[in-house]
Amino acid sequence: MMAWLVYYHSEAGFDGLEAFWCFACVAAGAWIMVLPFLREFQAQADLTEAKELAASVEKISSVDAIAKQIESATEQWLHVEDRANEINAASREIAGKINAEAREFTEFLQKANDTEKNHLRLEVDKLNRAQGEWVKVVTGMLDHVFALNQAGRQSGQDKLVRQLNNFQAACRDVARRVGVITHEPKPEEDFDAGKHQLRDPEAEPEDGVKIIGIAAQGLSHQGQLLRKTVVVIEGEEELGQSPSDAGKTEPKSKAKSKAKKEQ
User: Fold this and answer.
1) By three-state DSSP, how is residue 237 classified?
2) Has residue 37 been placed in a domain?
3) How far apart are the C-alpha atoms of 260 and 242, rounded to whole Å?
4) Residue 185 lies in a domain
């Protein structure tokens, strides 16, 4: 409006001054028209800045809260660490006590084990000695029964021989139950140095020589040889009659009586 008025009143001549004032009026009008928009933009910018500042302040407040939480957590962690150190120390102390008690218990068990072993060893020694004693008793009994049986065979009385044979079989059966076994060679069996021996330990019999009698029966206990069978071989003076010939040779008195009956 002002620019038009200036132009209207300058009809005589439109020089540079009028042009300046026209431009100034146009510029002022444009500025007046743009100024509300600039104010509004500035207000929005200020509002946005205020909001961002408020958000920043809120974030800073949250950071402070987080810092406090971190500080609290740090303090709690320190307490936990102290507690853990206490627990660790207590655990070490308990572990030391457990190890000490375990060593003491192990030593006690070792001593008890050694004592038990010594006791068992003594018991085993006693049992071995007792076993050796009763094995000697059993073998002595079997030797006496064998000698009695041999004497009965030499008597020539059949009834007595049968009774003694039954008695010897019963004694051998009892001895067999406790592991003592008697050994006698078969009639006309060949001499075997692994199972037989002579009365003379220095004698060396020939191979294939026959056994004609028994001087002492062989004995073994639970598979272990106690004594080889003492035998009489061909060409050696016989101490006792062979079991295979028992009852075959008659005594002189019985032979004489039989001859009288035949006459």
Assistant:
1) coil
2) no
3) 29
4) yes
User: What's the domain range around 200?
Assistant: 134-243
Q: At how many degrees (to 10) do helices 16-155 and 2-9 cross?
A: 150
**Bridge-partner residues for 220, per DSSP?**
181, 225
- Phi/psi of residue 251, nearest 5 degrees: -70, 160
Look up residue 258 and give its two tokens: 């039989």
User: Is 142 among the domain residues?
Assistant: yes
> What DSSP state is assigned to residue 149?
H
> CA separation (Å) from 123 to 97, 112, 118, 135?
38, 16, 8, 18
Please tell me the distance from the alpha carbon of residue 145 to that of residue 171, in angstroms, as a whole number: 8
Helices 16-155 + 158-177 axis angle, to 10: 170
- Segment 146-151 long-range contacts (CB within 8 Å, at least 24 positions apart): 146/182, 146/216, 146/217, 150/214, 150/240, 150/241
Whole-number Å distance between alpha carbons of 45 and 67 = 32
Here the tokens at position 159 are: 């009834």
Could you give the number of structural domains in the chain? 1
3-state secondary structure at position 63: helix
- In terms of pTM, does the model score above 0.70? no
What is the residue-level pLDDT of the chain in tens, covering all 263 positions? 555 555 555 555 555 555 666 667 777 777 777 778 878 888 888 888 888 888 887 777 777 788 888 888 888 888 888 888 999 999 999 999 999 999 999 999 999 988 988 999 998 998 888 888 888 898 899 899 999 888 888 888 889 889 989 998 999 899 888 888 888 888 778 888 888 888 887 777 777 788 888 888 899 988 888 888 888 887 775 444 433 343 333 333 343 343 333 33
Structural domain contains residue 121: no
